[in-house]
Amino acid sequence: MLKLYYAPGTCAMAAHIALEEAGADYEGIVLDFSKKQQQSPEFLAINSKARVPVLVSHAGALTETPAILAYIAQTYPDAQLAPLNNPFEFARVQAFNNYLSSTVHVAHAHKLRGHRWADEPSSLDDMNRKVPENMSALMQMIEDTMFEGPWVMGETYSICDPYLYTIARWLKSDRVEVAKFPKIQVHMARVEARPAVKAILPHH
Amino acid sequence: MLKLYYAPGTCAMAAHIALEEAGADYEGIVLDFSKKQQQSPEFLAINSKARVPVLVSHAGALTETPAILAYIAQTYPDAQLAPLNNPFEFARVQAFNNYLSSTVHVAHAHKLRGHRWADEPSSLDDMNRKVPENMSALMQMIEDTMFEGPWVMGETYSICDPYLYTIARWLKSDRVEVAKFPKIQVHMARVEARPAVKAILPHH
């Protein structure tokens, strides 16, 4: 059975949703970040990066949300969570998810994780101040140039949708009005109405 | 014919190498960042993110290095650049490349691109000062826990190798001694000895 290590409110929610969408047989294992459980020797033995999500299968442990999402799509093909037989369309899905991980999530992380990249309190305040501007600009880019509708990639739900939803949930705490992005706002409600999301929301 | 938009010294080198390794029929189109050619209306019409690499095929434009590398591996299977028939091993390749894009490249970017995340000159100086510490820690993590040897994923060369090589080339300007990481140092020389790299090095 698969095991998903996650923490509430983190990007691990995307993998959690995808496992539900896939109908996977999995066990969710919650880490309490307030108790720094991601720094425990037991967890570091699973993921030396001390981050979630981690998906453990019989073959070993996988990290990084875009890779985990693609793995779930590939190993549960009946769920049709990605265009597996079209390398170009599959790459577009991967490109969108990579944009979320390497640009959008990173912009958000400068609110509370600025200490990763700078030391002075004034720098951390500066980074935090800029988060609403950056997250707004990136969401506008998604709204205007990437989002096809009604799902991210068009008519078909894919592993892009739970990931965008997961990050869009951070906008309020990032001091960004999601209502400025009507397509993304409607998308959030559509994702939230899915049984897979209803099943895992109480854990997040 | 494929078209690769790139700029010397950028992460686009990884895709450039992979196209050579694949034996792809492609045209390289160089952008001059000193002339802000990535901001031109012509290029923004291809990639609204104003970044390289972009790989254009008959189907359209692809962005984001991990997605482009996987696309090259999938569309040139004879080159055996990724474990295409093993979703778990393929996901491990993707996870490594995602780590490079969302963590290592991002750490490097705080040297010259700090203005993406903060406004004050003192913050940008602070970020720049921290780059050697961060890049050293991340390379140590790769050296100790990810790099299998002699290639990133073990006995078989993959799309992880040109990407690690591309980023390792930045270490000197990031004020990090690559000699501190003997596996990565040997790996750089091994990658550089490949005909595909010799073919594209004059352009970078």
How would you describe this structure to a colleague?
The structure is a homodimer of 204-residue chains. The first copy, chain A, is of the alpha+beta class. Chain A folds into two domains: 2-80, 3-Layer(aba) Sandwich (Glutaredoxin); 87-194, Up-down Bundle (Glutathione S-transferase Yfyf (Class Pi), Chain A, domain 2), CATH 1.20.1050. Helices cover 50% and strands 9% of the residues of chain A. Chain A has helices at 12-22, 41-46, 65-75, 87-109, 121-146, 160-168, 182-192, 195-200, and strands at residues 2-6, 26-30, 54-57, 60-63. Chain A has a four-stranded mixed beta sheet, with helices on one face. In chain A, a hairpin with a 2-residue loop joins strand 3 (54-57) and strand 4 (60-63). The longest helix of chain A is centred in the middle third of the chain and has 26 residues, at 121-146.
List the helices and strands and how they pair.
The structure is a homodimer of 204-residue chains.
Chain A: E1 2-6, H1 12-22, E2 26-30, H2 41-46, E3 54-57, E4 60-63, H3 65-75, H4 87-109, H5 121-146, H6 160-168, H7 182-192, H8 195-200
Parallel strand pairs in A: 1-2
Antiparallel strand pairs in A: 1-3, 3-4
Helix pairs in contact in A: 1-3, 1-6, 4-5, 4-6, 6-7
